[in-house]
Amino acid sequence: MKEWRCLLAGKLVNDELTHKVESAVKERLLKTSQDKSVEDSTAGGDQVNYRRASRLLFQAVLAAAKLTFFEQLEQFPWEMISLLSGHPVVRAHSLHMLHSLFKVHEKDIKNGHVVSTNPELGNYIVNPDQNLNSMEERIKMSLVPRTPKWKGIFGVKPTSQQFKNALKDYDIFFYSGHGCGTKYLVGEDIQKIQVQAASLLFGCDSIGLMSLGRLVENWGTAQSYLIGCSPCIVGTLWAVTDQDTDRLALNMLHHWLPPTEEMKKRMSLVEPKDKRPLRNDLRQEARQFMTSAAFAAIGLPIKLHSEFD
């Protein structure tokens, strides 16, 4: 796509660079229109100007890209293409669904992102099937000190009411286990509640789509969360390995969440003033390519900030 690859990258949020790009394009168009011998103008001059504009575009800080696909293409890991590396990316199953989520969360949207005002209001369910003991120990060792004010359970089967409360009463929900937990709360029940939490579903095939026949659209658990108005769902498109998934999940939380008071004291950190988006480049923490490629975010772009911002 050469210079036209910028069309995939989302909206520019750096006004100064936007102005430079527009000026460069207008300058070239004006020069071409005033040239009496347009046919004699060299292709090399055009290439220089297009490259100049392209460089300016990719120096800019870009808003999160929103990707909407034909359903047969949704299982493809589009987030892995080099253009989107290190760039916030979210998927949307349809523009209608994206618009519905926007209307529900409109009051919390600032500069194109849903802003969660309380990242300390989180809940987790880890190893509910009680057969991933090594995974449970790895998660507990890092999750508890990193999220001291979160509530949740390790190695305990949740009731349907516990699962509902985790989704509707908290800003962040972290699930780590087999699948996406629908054996504890089925999709039909998720659709009926107002899902407040950004849902992080770190299990195999947690947001993958299933074919239900030729006459209906593919379907997956993520649709139930979207119908329940969850602002964002992060999960996997296919089966993944537990160690790589744990590494990626914990690193994502570590970089996404603001530092704890203990971290700031120990490392002399100052609370950052810029809000913290979910970053696409954090998938590189996984050692296996297929695990890294499996993760995707669906819904609206979301950022966190603390009460100190």
Q: How big a fraction of the residues is strand?
A: 15-25%
Mean pLDDT: 79
Order of strands across the widest beta sheet?
A: 6-5-7-8-9-11
Shape: globular
Helical content class? 25-40%
Supply Rg. 22 Å
Distance between the termini: 40 Å
Provide the CATH topology of the largest domain.
Rossmann fold
Number of helices: 10
Number of strands: 12
Write the layout of secondary structure elements.
Layout: H1 15-34, H2 43-59, E1 65-68, E2 89-92, H3 95-104, E3 109-110, E4 113-116, E5 122-126, H4 133-146, E6 151-154, H5 160-168, E7 172-176, H6 187-192, E8 198-202, H7 221-227, E9 232-236, H8 242-256, H9 261-267, E10 276-277, H10 289-294, E11 295-299, E12 302-304
Parallel strand pairs: 1-2, 4-12, 5-6, 5-7, 7-8, 8-9
Antiparallel strand pairs: 3-4, 9-11, 10-12
Helix pairs in contact: 1-2, 4-8
